[in-house]
UniProtKB/TrEMBL annotation:
<dbReference type="InterPro" id="IPR036259">
    <property type="entry name" value="MFS_trans_sf"/>
</dbReference>
<dbReference type="Pfam" id="PF07690">
    <property type="entry name" value="MFS_1"/>
</dbReference>
<dbReference type="GO" id="GO:0005886">
    <property type="term" value="C:plasma membrane"/>
</dbReference>
<dbReference type="GO" id="GO:0022857">
    <property type="term" value="F:transmembrane transporter activity"/>
</dbReference>
<feature type="transmembrane region" description="Helical">
    <location>
        <begin position="262"/>
        <end position="282"/>
    </location>
</feature>
<feature type="compositionally biased region" description="Low complexity">
    <location>
        <begin position="435"/>
        <end position="470"/>
    </location>
</feature>
<dbReference type="InterPro" id="IPR020846">
    <property type="entry name" value="MFS_dom"/>
</dbReference>
<feature type="transmembrane region" description="Helical">
    <location>
        <begin position="403"/>
        <end position="423"/>
    </location>
</feature>
<feature type="transmembrane region" description="Helical">
    <location>
        <begin position="12"/>
        <end position="37"/>
    </location>
</feature>
<feature type="domain" description="Major facilitator superfamily (MFS) profile">
    <location>
        <begin position="1"/>
        <end position="429"/>
    </location>
</feature>
<feature type="transmembrane region" description="Helical">
    <location>
        <begin position="179"/>
        <end position="199"/>
    </location>
</feature>
<protein>
    <submittedName>
        <fullName>DHA3 family multidrug efflux protein-like MFS transporter</fullName>
    </submittedName>
</protein>
<keyword id="KW-1003">Cell membrane</keyword>
<feature type="transmembrane region" description="Helical">
    <location>
        <begin position="289"/>
        <end position="308"/>
    </location>
</feature>
<feature type="region of interest" description="Disordered">
    <location>
        <begin position="435"/>
        <end position="478"/>
    </location>
</feature>
<feature type="transmembrane region" description="Helical">
    <location>
        <begin position="76"/>
        <end position="97"/>
    </location>
</feature>
<keyword id="KW-0472">Membrane</keyword>
């Protein structure tokens, strides 16, 4: 692997801490989804859980980005973990005082109070997902950031591998109680560990750009000031619109084919694709054209989505999802690398948060709509309706084939959208801007921002230069 220069020691410590927190937050999310489906047997309920997650992600991204830009990033990571601890404690209290029978009714108010508390705890972890790529900008030199982003993807893969196994087994044998106890212990350890890690970063100056809090208007100006960047954000939003289908239906589809224990272990195996993909990026990088790579990877991903549901078997599902997992780190690392290069550091938190909010804003619509549509339209259509009579002889019939048909249609739409994006003007403009930015700033420069005194033995991080984006008077590029 090519050496990642910069302050590697601090970067790796942050990766380890992120691994701990990601594992536990993913465990809570996976576990509550599995558990609610097993308790209620309601596809609609699992879709609502996905919708809650996506709505909260969309609503909080810009705010979280402002917090990251206006405070020390490691402090915000601790605040993130602390908020999750408080919310999980409240959820444990609800669990302890609620009769087990109340959780079996999908219309139970106590069930949804419990679910919302858990999902808010998971969402609090998104502060960390915004802060980490900005810390890559601070700690890692520009030429190695794509490889560092690959390692971040590897951590996500390790998180999903351990998470799916842990959550499946815990839910199968002890419901949600052990999940919550484990979450509180691990998050407490992560807060203690993070207190020992010091990053010398430019001191945050909330008034430097004239805004102390959320600055949506200024952030939009920055994004509009970079040719093609807004189009990239909206392309990702459209992908997430279709991706909401996965959020709402994948667990129900998988659990219709195998047991919860098998499904959890299978996701653990599939998650090795994330690890392999991230390690490949860390070794080889993304090349000189990450914008083109991002779109080509999306094209392959949607082809996979189109193909795997054609057979009613866990084998094509597993094979397709492994390819999907292998390539997703390339898409995520490419988008992060693009933003890290073309957006100034002092705005990166807000731009990452803005991108997160916009990209996720479309998904709740899909997640909330597709579950009842699947339940009341596609499942009957492929069980004893016109679909079963017309294509059922080769496609298969039954509830699982109704869900499979939704995946096939989603893949077809994704392929069309990506092909259009590859031939578009915004794609060419963003590619040109990335190439020009690379030529302008091939080496990092020392920051002129004030830096607070660091703890003994701490390495000072450099702040790389970025193309200057005026905060006022930028004419939007269309």
């Amino acid at each position: 692997m090519s050496a990642i220069r910069g302050d590697r020691r601090v970067f790796y410590q942050l990766l380890v801490n992120t691994l701990l927190v990601s594992v536990i937050n993913f465990t809570v999310w996976f576990a509550v989804t599995f558990w609610v489906y097993l308790e209620t047997r309601s596809v609609f309920a699992t879709g609502v859980i996905s919708g809650i997650f996506l709505v909260l992600t969309a609503l909080t991204g810009i705010w979280f980005g402002s917090l990251v830009d206006h405070h020390r990033r490691t402090v915000m990571m601790q605040v993130s973990a602390g908020a999750s601890v408080l919310l999980y404690l409240a959820a444990l209290g609800v669990w302890l005082v609620t009769p087990a029978e109340a959780f079996k009714n999908p219309a139970s108010a106590r069930l949804w109070v419990f679910v919302v508390l858990l999902m808010c705890g998971v969402i609090a972890g998104n502060i960390r997902t915004i802060a980490l790529p900005t810390l890559v900008t601070i700690l890692i030199e520009e030429g190695d950031r794509d490889r560092a982003n690959g390692l971040v993807g590897t951590v996500s893969g390790v998180s999903m591998l351990t998470t799916s196994v842990i959550s499946g087994l815990l839910v199968a044998f002890d419901g949600m109680r052990s999940v919550l106890v484990l979450a509180l212990v691990v998050l407490g350890l992560s807060i203690v560990h993070l207190a020992t890690v010091t990053v010398r970063e430019p001191a945050p100056d909330p008034t430097a750009d004239g805004h102390r809090r959320v600055d949506l208007r200024g952030t939009v100006r920055v994004v509009n000031g970079i040719p093609g960047l807004m189009a990239l954000v909206f392309f990702s939003a459209f992908n997430n619109l279709l991706g909401g289908v996965f959020m709402a239906l994948m667990d129900a589809y998988g659990l219709s084919l195998v047991s919860v224990q098998t499904w959890g272990v299978l996701w653990g195996v599939l998650s090795t694709g994330f690890i392999v993909g991230g390690l490949l990026i860390a070794r080889t990088g993304l090349g000189s054209a990450p914008v083109r790579l991002l779109l080509l990877v999306n094209l392959v991903l949607w082809v996979v989505v189109l193909l795997f549901p054609l057979s009613a078997s866990i084998i094509p599902l597993a094979a397709g999802m492994y390819v999907y997992m292998l390539l997703v780190p390339y898409a995520e690392a490419a988008e992060q690398t693009i933003l890290q290069r073309v957006v100034p550091l002092e705005r990166q938190g807000r731009v990452f948060g803005f991108a997160q909010s916009v990209e996720q804003a479309a998904s709740p619509l899909t997640a909330f709509l597709i579950s009842p549509i699947a339940q009341f339209v596609f499942i009957p259509f492929m069980t004893d309706g016109a679909g079963a009579r017309t294509i059922g002889t080769w496609f298969g019939t039954g509830p699982d084939r109704g869900l499979a048909l939704v995946f096939v249609l989603t893949g077809a739409l994704g392929i069309i959208a990506t092909a259009v994006a590859l031939g578009s003007r915004p794609y060419r403009r963003l590619s040109d801007r990335y190439a020009a930015s690379a030529a302008e700033s091939t080496e990092p420069a020392e920051s002129t921002e004030p830096v607070d005194d660091a703890a003994p033995g701490t390495v000072a991080a450099t702040t790389p230069t970025a193309p200057t984006i005026p905060s006022e008077g930028v004419t939007p590029n269309r």
